[in-house]
Amino acid sequence: MSLTSAIYGCVGTELSDAEKRFFREARPWGFILFARNIADPDQLLHFTSSLREAAGHDAPILIDQEGGRVQRLRPPHWRAWPAGRRYGEIYGQDSERGLHAARLGARLIAAELRSVGVTVDCLPVLDAPVRGAHDVIGDRAYGDEPGLIAALGLAVAEGLMSGGVLPVVKHMPGHGRARCDSHKNLPVVDASLEELEGRDFAPFYALRALPLAMTAHVVYTALDPDYPATTSTTVIGETIRGRIGFEGLLMSDDLSMKALKGDFEARTRAALAAGCDLVLHCNGDMAEMEAVAAEAKPLEGESLKRSEAALGRVVLPSEAVDIDSLWAEFSEITGLA
Q1: For residue 31, is pLDDT > 80?
Q2: Rounded distance between C-alpha atoms, residue 144 and residue 91, angstroms
Q3: Residues 6+ apart with CB under 8 A from 315
Q4: Domain-by-domain residue ranges, the chain?
Q5: d(CA 37, CA 291)
Q6: 279-314, pLDDT tens digit by residue?
Q7: What is the DSSP letter of 23?
Q8: To which CATH superfamily is domain 4-314 assigned?
Q9: pLDDT at 180 over 80
Q10: Residue 217: phi, psi to the nearest 5?
Q11: N or C: more exposed end of the chain, with fewer CB within 10 A?
C-alpha cells in the first residue's frame, strides 16, 4: 500500500488505540511532535518507535526545534537553545564565529533529536523581517539582511545534516513582511514583485538546493491576490518552483491554522492541487485528521521522486562526537556559559 501525502500530529504522550488504527489505515508519510507529546527521553524514544510501528514504515518524524521561543524539547531533560537572532548578533561582530556557532548549535540539536528518534527539524527560518511586521517571526529570524540570513541558514542546515537530521527551510517564499500571525489570521503582503525578489526571496533562492521546504500561509498581492502561497498554483509554480528554483520536497504549513478557510477536505485538496507535495496537520484532532486523510492522495509521481531524493540526503555521522566538549565551546561563543 502506498504512503499518503500527509504528516500528522498526535494528542498526548502515548498513542491511543484510535490513533493506532487511524495511522495504520492512513499510512502517512510522517509525523510531527509538539510539547504535549513529550515527557522525558525514555518516553519520547518509545513514542517515536510506536509512531513508526503504527504507520508500518520508517516514517520521518518532524519537530520545531529552533531555539528561543520555539523549541519543543526543553530543560530539564534537554538543553535550552538561543533564538536565531543570537547567531546574527555574533555574526555581526565576527562572521566566521557566527557561522561556527550556528553550525555547532545545529549539530548539537541534531544529536539530541537523533537520540530520541526524531529525524527532521523544521529549521532554518529564512524569513527576512521588515519594520512594522508582526513579531510571530521576530527573533526567530537570524537578522534583517538577506545575505546574513542565507549564510546562517546554510550553516544551520549543514549542522543538522552532519548529525543525520534533515532541515526544512521555512516559510517559503517569505513570512517576514506579515503584519499578523498566520496562526490566527491571513496575512496580506502588498509589496511589489521587485521588492519581494530583492529581499524576501533571496535567502530561499540561495538555499534552493536544500531537500525540504515549508510554505507560508500568506497572500502576496503581486503574485496572486486571491490565494495564500500554500493554496496558490501561481505562487508555487511560478515563484517557489520558478523564480526561486526550489526542486525539493514541499510541504504546507499547518492546515489547522486560521489563515486558511474552508473545511479540512477543501484545505487538503487546495494545497495538493496547488503543488504541495505533502500536507501538514498538527493538532491531533481525529475528526480533522480523518477529513485530511479523505483527500490526501497517494504519494506518487514527482512528489514520490522528491521524497526519495530528500530522504536519500540523510547521512548518519560516521563517528561519535564529544557532546560535552562541543557544548562547552558553543556556550562560550554564545555567552550561555
Answers
A1: yes
A2: 12
A3: 161, 164
A4: 4-314
A5: 22
A6: 999 999 999 999 999 999 999 999 999 999 999 999
A7: H
A8: Glycoside hydrolase, family 3, N-terminal domain (3.20.20.300)
A9: yes
A10: -85, 70
A11: N
